[in-house]
Amino acid sequence: MMKAVFRMDRRVRRSAWAVFAVSAVGTALYSAPAYLTGDPSQGRIPINPDVALHYLSVVVHALPASLLLLLGPVQFVPALRNKYGKLHRVVGRVYMVSVLIASVAGLFAATFSVDGFSVQVAFYLLTAAWLYSLVQAYRTIRRGRIQLHRIWMIRNYALSFAAVVLRLFLVLGLAARSRYDWLSFEDVYAASVWASILVSAGVAEWFIVHRTLKPLARSRRRPGAVTPDGATTVTGAGRVPA
Which of 52, 113, 115, 168 is paired with 212 by a 20 to 30 Å CA distance? Predict the structure, then answer.
């Protein structure tokens, strides 16, 4: 019975990962080509006609953001991470640089956005959390705290994945708008932006608690187990520094 439950749980997790990976890759491949043309009319984001560099900032944000959406799912596959450690580190550096470039350009793009104050605030907060989680992920891996590094990278990629969730909420919002005339596109877009950030961050925290912290807490009773802060456990002595 337990084996059957375990196999079912494993299939569910693999299916969920497949949906997650395909949606991330699909969004990246759908978004990036529009910004390779150099034609503002092909873009997915309204451009401020009064700011000459607004379109350029959107392009500089969108292309590395699409790249990191592509790279993220591969980084979370344990088999690939463990077998190809050097490749994992190289891809991680490319991901980190992509986040930095996308963040700086995103701040400029949000500042001159024509989507309203609420959307600007949402993107400012998203960028701040994006950069903070990246810095924490970098600091923890430099200190050898692998589990904490993974936790911060889950948070960081969840914020990256908000771009995917945003499109889902937009589809749902536009469907609702077709039935309710009082809904404006601006209202739908602002609500979708906020919802995508909050839902992505919330799901990440749920995953961290239930799939990372709880298993680690159970493993702390076993000698030699590694805790999130990089410590190890020994029989009868609790934690000792790693």
Answer: 168
Token pair belonging to 228: 């999130």
Which residues of the chain fall below pLDDT 50? 1-2, 4-6, 8, 232-242
Q: Which residue has the tokens 């609500």?
A: 191
pLDDT at 7: 54
* Among the listed residues 168, 131, 167, the one whose alpha carbon sits nearest the alpha carbon of residue 152: 131
pLDDT in tens, 206-236: 999 887 887 777 766 665 555 555 554 444 3
Q: Of 203, 223, 230, whose CA–CA distance to 147 is shortest?
A: 230
